[in-house]
Amino acid sequence: MTKKENQKTNLIKTFYLLLSVLLLTVFTSIVSTVAAVNGTIVIDPGHDYYDSGACAFGVKESTVNAQLAYKLATKLRDRGYAVYFTHPISYANNVGNDIPTILPPMNRKYPILESEGGANSLCGAINRINPDAAICVHHNSFDKDGPQGLEIYWRNNGNSAEVMQKSQHLANLLYNKCQNIYSHGRGVKIGNYKICLAHSPTVLFEAGFLSTKVEFDKIVDQNQQHRMAEAMAQAIAEFVGVRQQPQPQPQPQPQPQFTAIMGTSLTSPEKMARFYQNNSPIPFPSFYANHGLDLNKFCQLYYDVANSEGVRAEVAFCQAIHETGWLRYNGTVDIGQLNFGGLGATGNGVKGNSFGSVREGILAQIQHLKAYASIKNLNNACVDPRYKYVNKGSATFVEWLGIQENPKHCGWASSKGYGYELKNLIYRLLNT
Ligand SMILES: [Zn+2]
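Above: query sequence and zinc ion SMILES. Below: predicted holo structure tokens.
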């Protein structure tokens, strides 16, 4: 081989090497695009903690909805779909914490019907995710034993022709796979549910009749639930399309479903004041003027005292709002006691503790909160007379301040859903 030929060969070799690198890069990027996510599905586990839907033979609809929804979610996730719940289901046996949610818990009537408010925010949240499909998981009920079988609803008005047609198609695919899992199905039907106004194909799935004993027994059976969820997952996969072999996919980071009490404050004194002004049924009480405080100074004080103990200001402030009824004090505690957390007001008209200054009253409430939330020492001298009674660190989350929801069955208050009511106030404050 001459030198010239040799150079030519080298040039050709280099060319092919570059070409193969290029092709490999393109191929790899195609493969990694395919491997990303097969699609996105929103599952709406019908009803929630506050509105549990139907109830039969001692079982709430919200519980079986959550169980079936969670099985469906894991099966879709295993097929490589990104899955979101509309709202947390952790109240139902502490499952589902690993599925991210697009809304906080709903504390109003479950908003899916045309006549009910709240569905707009649900549709809005679904639209932000823009999933390939959304499915509402419910169970039917009737006033007597007898009717049974699957019903699937899709909406035939008020949405784009494309979305409605796809929703009907999704309903048919689901029905084909699922109609005989529990009992003989009752058909695909038109139902003008408001949630079906989302801009993605959406159906409402009524898996069977809780109120009919023979079907009830299947609905609560975990193996039967798996069969139903598997058939649902197959139908949804057929609808959205599977572009690769099923393989576990990295999930988007689940949003923490529990709300920490300790930590950096996410609000500001200005926001707290605005929240009070916009939502309180009464103007800020002139009583506090005697203590040199207008609303802005009061909020600033709350913010500073909370931060001095490492407690989130929005948690402390919302608890005070809840405990005092927006500082109206129409319970047993009087405004003059400067007791913002109802400390020592243990019921039966017991008036509870009194404090020497607004700051001391606020600090006492916040130290009591910290006692529940943390095992750390107080940063200020202890002014909470009930600090010693708290099992330290027994309620690290807002949700667990309610004794009924606390896994250790202790907490700040015994009323049902106490922590969730606080959480809802906090959410409203942060969105002010
Ligand atoms: Zn329902």
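The first strand starts at residue 39 and ends at 45.
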